[in-house]
Amino acid sequence: MWRLSVSIFFFSCLAVSSSSYGDSEATCSGIVPLRYRYDKISITDYGGVGDGRTVNTKAFRAAIYRIQHLKRRGGTLLYIPPGVYLTESFNLTSHMTLYLAKGAVIRAVQDTWNWPLIDPLPSYGRGRELPGGRYMSFIHGDGLRDVVITGQNGTIDGQGEVWWNMWRSRTLKYTRPNLIEFKDSKEIIISNVIFQNSPFWNIHPVYCSNVVIHHVTILAPQDSPNTDGIDPDSSYNVCIEDSYISTGDDLVAIKSGWDEYGIAYGRPSSNITIRRITGSSPFAGIAIGSETSGGIKNIVAEHITLSNMGVGVNIKTNIGRGGYIKNIKISDVYIDTAKYGIKIAGDTGDHPDENYNPNALPIVKGIHIKNVWGVNVRNAGSIQGLKGSPFTGICLSEINLHGSLNSYKTWKCSDVIGTSLKVSPWPCSELRTTGGYNLCSSTF
Ligand SMILES: *[C@@H]1O[C@H](CO)[C@@H](O)[C@H](O)[C@H]1NC(C)=O
Ligand SMILES: *[C@@H]1O[C@H](CO)[C@@H](O)[C@H](O)[C@H]1NC(C)=O
Ligand SMILES: *[C@@H]1O[C@H](CO)[C@@H](O)[C@H](O)[C@H]1NC(C)=O
Question: Which residues, if any, are the signal sequence (predicted)?
Fold first, then answer.
């Protein structure tokens, strides 16, 4: 018996050290096969003019209509040559590649009054910002499979400023458009593209599976409201790697619906890997929530390099959310300058309406955070669970969060049960359960 357990322990150590942890070459980008498209068309064949002034909506719609209806074997590549292609929002179709050449820019028009409206997501019950419908995303995909957006680092530009100003002056009628949304879609690849100045969230896969996003650059000013980088929402098998994100809100935020609507829709986010992300934001680097009502599980984030952050790692939910956040593994995070290193909170975010159930408490359990190194971090961490639903299995190991000389503060905890190993500054007593050493070392 003794021998068996020793060998199992030894084996699991080996397995861990030879698999993803610490391996900077690991990749999940192979989950969606890259298909070669023999059929190629150019936006200029459909009347596209890249002069920065001509509105190219008809060209995009005609080219994509052609792809959708001719259904060429192996799909079709739509080539965007260098130039600035102004357009209204448009829908993609299945089996297509949108290929942006070096120097190609697809730029959104700024006619907010004319922007198409679509239904709210069932898991949100209303627009995220305002009741009712929501503006369609600039580039939209609904019910698609096998779609690639790639090229030689061309740019998709949302010209979000007018939308941010409407938010600032409270003149928005509906929820702002995302830059790109895929809904109910699968086999999606987004790579080697620059996204800039999204009106709202940048890349929003919702009710999707098998989504790969890698080598993207996402840029928006630090003061632009709600310009989240990538928000996988009620989606599974998502791989996000090798990207630079600097925006005005969370860099990557995993979500799964909002209060009673998200609970009723019941669609979790699971099996999501986030790896080798670099960036900066006044909000969070790696975020989970705060919309977590469909449940969020089996998430790995590793090799994350952050500078000038609000919060390094932020897990956030609220009463009324229901659902769960479980089996989350975050490791190898480097933070240079942040207000908070790690924050796990049960009191974040607003409610869609007054009909949320205050007894629907989220379950937060099994959060493992390992190898975090921070310099100039003002507050090491705060872990505040819910009275009626304490956060359990919170395991912190090998964490060093150094404050600047005058602002050094330690951990704040409440309603949390967990363990810690080699954490500096010394963690709160709630994270010093006896036997914690073994629990931490055997689960990582
Ligand atoms: C989870 O995602 C990984 C890639 O990140 C994939 O290889 C694996 O098959 C997925 N697991 C399941 C159960 O689908
Ligand atoms: C684009 O897709 C949306 C959502 O599926 C739909 O409501 C809209 O009519 C489509 N627009 C066009 C121009 O096809
Ligand atoms: C595009 O940008 C990414 C990220 O900066 C970079 O890794 C990649 O080499 C670039 N690709 C091309 C084709 O220039």
Answer: 1-19
- Tokens 């993207």 correspond to 216
Q: What is the arithmetic mean of pLDDT over 87-102?
A: 98
Domain membership flag for residue 22: no
Ligand 1 and 273: CB distance under 6 A: yes
pLDDT tens digits along 208-230: 999 999 999 999 999 999 999 99
Number of domains into which the chain is organized: 2
Residues 207 and 254 in one domain: no
pLDDT value of position 235: 98
CATH code assigned at 153: 2.160.20.10
The domain containing residue 302 runs over which residues? Answer: 250-444
Ligand nearest, relative to CA of residue 186: 1
Instruction: For residues 78 and 204, state if they share a domain.
Output: yes
Q: How far is the CA of 78 from the centre of ligand 1 (A)?
A: 30
Higher pLDDT, 343 or 406: 343
Q: With a threshold of 0.85, does the pTM exceed it? A: yes
Q: Is 439 helix (H, G, I), strand (E, B) or coil?
A: helix
The response to whether residue 215 sits with its C-beta less than 6 Å from ligand 3 reads yes
Tell me, yes or no, whether 207 and 277 share the same domain: no
Contact indicator for 200, 178 with CB cutoff of 8 Å? yes
| pLDDT value for 6 | 36
The answer as to whether 349 is a domain residue is yes
- Write out pLDDT tens, residues 279-288: 999 999 999 9
Check residue 435 and give its pLDDT: 57
Give yes or no for residue 426 having a pLDDT over 60. Answer: yes
| CB distance 375 to ligand 1 below 6 Å | no
The residue type found at 333 is V
Distance between CA atoms of 194 and 378, rounded to whole angstroms?
A: 32
Contact of 60 with 48, CB cutoff 8 Å:
yes
> What spacing in Å lies between the alpha carbon of 293 and ligand 3's midpoint?
36
What is the predicted pLDDT for the residue at 436? 52
Let me know: does 153 contact 192? Beta carbons within 8 Å: yes
Pairing of strands 296-316, 134-135: unpaired
Distance of CA 417 from the midpoint of ligand 1 (Å):
30
Atom of ligand 1 nearest to the CA of 273: 5
Q: Where are the alpha helices (DSSP H) in 184-300?
A: 259-265
Closest CA to 220 of 206, 240, 203: 203
The residues that are catalytic are 249
- Tell me: pLDDT of 434 over 90: no
